[in-house]
Amino acid sequence: MIEAQELAALGLTSYEAAAYLALIGQAELTPAEVAARGTIPRQRVYDVLAGLAAKGLCQSREGSPRTYAAVAPALAMELLAGERAAALARQKQEAEAAAARLTEALTPLFAGGRGRSDPLAYAEVLSGPTRIAQRALALARAAKKQVLSSITRPMILSNDQNQAFMEAPLGRGLAYRALCDASVADEPGLSGLWPGLCAKGLELRVVPALPLKMQCFDDETTLLSMQDPAGGQPSFTAVVIHNQGVAAMLRLAFEHLWAEAKPYAGGA
Fold first, then answer.
1. pLDDT of residue 267
2. Rounded to whole angstroms, how far apart are CA atoms 179 and 156?
3. Domain end among 79, 96, 114
4. Domain count, the chain
5. CA 98 centroid distance within chain
6. Structural domain boundaries enclosing 61
7. pLDDT value at 208 more than 60
8. What does the alpha-carbon distance between residue 221 and residue 244 come to, in Å, rounded to a whole number?
9. Residues 106 and 128 in one domain
10. 207 three-state secondary structure
């Protein structure tokens, strides 16, 4: 059984589809009979039949009352398919013309926006140990030349995360230098990592104290990790800064501390 919706897919209204299905099973029908068979409101049926006739899907026959007859399905479907194809072609042309107009109008706006710098585009603020650990590992994996680290409390990453973080660049042959606060250098969790990491190329030195946790990647991106000063349960915030000037300034501080630091005894 053909449903009216199937004909509607070819461009007929639901009432037109219902009217054609009502007509096709009979030689001819009056408007009242079409309305009854097609469940079409009586006040609408005349307009519906006029629409069908305009599309070439039915013919009216003079009489009292006037009657309507469906054209053969082969002809009707050919007419519908042709009209639908023409409508789609028109829509395609209209869409392409609209796209061209919008492209022309929007391109200068896009170009103007690219020329303006977002003052916060170079900074990312991260909260919570999990988010910080994920971003730190991503930065370590993306490094291309070298990593500089300063390691001090609070320890945000777990021992496993610290190992994965350091092995990511070391495993690719990158230069990796780390300054470690003397108070944490010999902690059991970390001290067990140093021999293996130093064997892979880590250069490790120890200083009496470090004011801040820092990682610098390729002299371009810096990760600064801090414990929030508010009381209560410890929480952590990190800032990723994509700025060569900041990286250069922090490297000066790193090199000053590096020159005065002592090589880690276990890393020899």
1. 42
2. 16
3. 114
4. 2
5. 26
6. 1-114
7. yes
8. 7
9. no
10. strand
